[in-house]
Amino acid sequence: MTTALRPEGVNLIAALTSTGQFLYTVNCGKTNGPTFGFFLMKLCEHFDAEDHHWRKSTIFMVDNAGYHRGTVARDII
What we know:
Layout: E1 10-16, E2 22-28, H1 33-50, H2 66-69, H3 71-76
Antiparallel strand pairs: 1-2
């Protein structure tokens, strides 16, 4: 057994738009519902600043991670 400390993981959450924008955040530790929810909130703020009607023509595609299906993500989108 070792007593060495293991650094926390680094995770990237990213979005790619059909116009080629690559939007991302880098996080320490595991990604969970609140972390993903915060990213979605910031993403929505970014889209709101560009076009207030973005929701009419936007589709979010995510994989099957549990935090993508959680109540935090569903409440934001």
